[in-house]
Amino acid sequence: MKILFATSEIHPLIKTGGLADVSAALPVALQALGQDVRVLIPGYSQVLDKLENKRKVATFSVFPGQPGVNLLSAKMPDSGVPVYVLDAPQYYCRVAGPYQYELGGDWPDNAMRFGMLSKVAALLGSADSPVAWQADVVHCNDWQSGLAPAYLQMTQSVHAKSVMTIHNIVFQGNFDRDWLGPLDLPQSCFDMHGVEFHGHLSFLKAGLHYADRIVTVSPTYAREIQSTELGHGMQGLLTSRNGDVSGILNGIDENEWNPATDPHLTSRYDSSDLAPKLAGKLALQKHLGLEANAEAPLLGVVSRLTYQKGLDLLLECLPKLLDGGAQLVVLGSGEVDLQRRYQQLASRYPGRVSVTVRFDEALSHQVMAYSDIFLMPSRFEPCGLNQMYGMRYGTPPVVRRTGGLADSVTDASQPDGTGFVFDEPSSAALYRAVSAAIDCYRGKKAFQRIQINGMRRDVGWSSSAQKYINLYQTIS
Ligand code: ADP
Questions:
Q1: Is-contact 252 392, C-beta < 8 A?
Q2: What is the tens place of the pLDDT at every residue in 348-396?
Q3: Which pLDDT does position 444 carry in this prediction?
């Protein structure tokens, strides 16, 4: 099958979160299973800078009255997966992030920037494709490509089927209805049974309404988003399309995240010998200004600092954990208030708490590898990748039983336990779970069993990629 994977971020070109990792790894797994998969990505400066051997394959106008854009063709740096780059510098070549400018506000023309991505995705899946390749299935990811299924449905020509994957239903791409005209959408689609969502043009709603199939990134989250509590207003639509909604658990890139070969690590290891992990821990403690203490349980966090991730719950119980002898390393950025509170904690506990506020790929691998226990107390979590990285690196995660965390981590009470799972979103429940993990860590033997169970668990992409292929086959 010819599959177009439309995405707004992809590792290692541009990344703000898990979507970038999935966009890099899933196409590789689909390709390994014999599919002709190509990625479509906006031509941000970072993408243009990092991609070599780009070739212009088409020039065309996306919306009436707009200047023409170029479509470039290239190959992803390591995997060689073919990638189309939407080259429109006036929209994508900007200093700062893919969605926001430096002070954290959304780019005011995001509707046009991602409407254009969606429209080009739809064109590549229609008989009007600007290149000599037409997708059978357009696979959209989150709101940024959410209008593609709408454009596909509206085209008069023969066109592809579409799949809409929800990586996080909180991000919906809701804009003023005045964008309908510039995005070449008829007023008639501004309807409850169309792109309208509470008086706004919603990219995600459009995707959920028009796509042939809806997927989210774990079976538990597929159920949760059909509830008022976690559906963020989309629950009614999702429930009405229940038969078209499924959950396919994300996998991880087992080459990129492999403690035996990881180039970011100072000492590498595998499940047959964990000793180098301890040497790495001591080096990391020194590097971050923590007391070099092999015995102190080192708790690790790598995360966007947001309400979703439950890191405020952690702040409440940290003093007790630190007073009990634990250390903490945090790598993350996000909400200013959370950043400040974590930085204050670091100054209150010198040598015991390290907080790094920035995006740092190398350090994220080191924290994952050399912490003893990884913390992910999310209030909700569509899938989550970090808990899987933690398991793979012998750093058992403490997670709340929600979404993909519930589907990927088995509690230590089970013979095949890989981490520590708690239920209630409260700091008391989190404290009990982290304390249990620390007790287990101090008991050594039982902890090692959990580490090894995690390291040997299959968290790769192949079975989930096959599930996507089965899904594409049901519609094409
Ligand atoms: P989400 O997509 O909600 O942010 P995931 O757990 O699915 O959460 O994926 C997060 C990804 O982003 C992981 O690869 C994680 O290592 C990475 N990440 C998050 N924050 C940082 C950071 N400050 N520095 C480096 N990597 C980070």
A1: yes
A2: 999 999 999 999 999 999 999 999 999 999 999 999 999 999 999 999 9
A3: 79
Digit-coded pLDDT (tens) for 318-349: 999 999 999 999 999 999 999 999 999 999 99
Question: How far away, in angstroms, is 392 Cα from ligand 1 center?
Answer: 16
Q: Is 94 in the pocket of ligand 1 (CB under 6 A)?
A: no
Output helix, strand, coil percentages for the chain, rounded to the nearest 5.
40, 20, 40
Both 163 and 247 in one domain: the answer is yes
Q: Is 384 in the pocket of ligand 1 (CB under 6 A)?
A: yes
333 lines ligand 1 (CB under 6 A): yes
- Please tell me the residue having the least CA distance from ligand 1 atom 20: 303
- CB of residue 306 inside a 6 A radius of ligand 1: no
Range of the domain at 218: 2-251+461-475
- Strands 69-75 and 82-87, how do they pair? antiparallel
- What global pTM score does this model have? 0.96
Give the distance (Å) from ligand 1 centre to CA of residue 319: 25
185 with 303, same domain: the answer is no
Q: Is the CB of 78 under 6 A from ligand 1?
A: no
**34: burial class by Cβ within 10 Å (0-12, 13-18, 19+)?**
exposed
Domains in the chain, number: 2
Answer positive or negative: Cα dihedral of 431, 432, 436, 439: positive
Shared domain for 315 and 404, answered yes or no, is yes
Q: What is the Å distance from ligand 1's center to 218 Cα?
A: 17
Q: Whose CA is nearest to atom 2 of ligand 1?
A: 18
**Ligand 1, atom 12: closest residue by C-alpha:** 17
Strand partners, 270: 273
Domain at 244, CATH number: 3.40.50.2000
Asked if residue 331 has its Cβ within 6 Å of ligand 1, the reply is yes
Q: pLDDT (tens digit, 9 = 90+) per residue, 446-471?
A: 999 999 999 999 999 999 999 999 99
> Contact 129/80 with Cβ under 8 angstroms?
no
Using N-to-C axis directions, what is the helix angle for 445-456 and 427-443, rounded to 10°?
A: 100
pLDDT tens across 281-314, in order?
Answer: 999 999 999 999 999 999 999 999 999 999 999 9
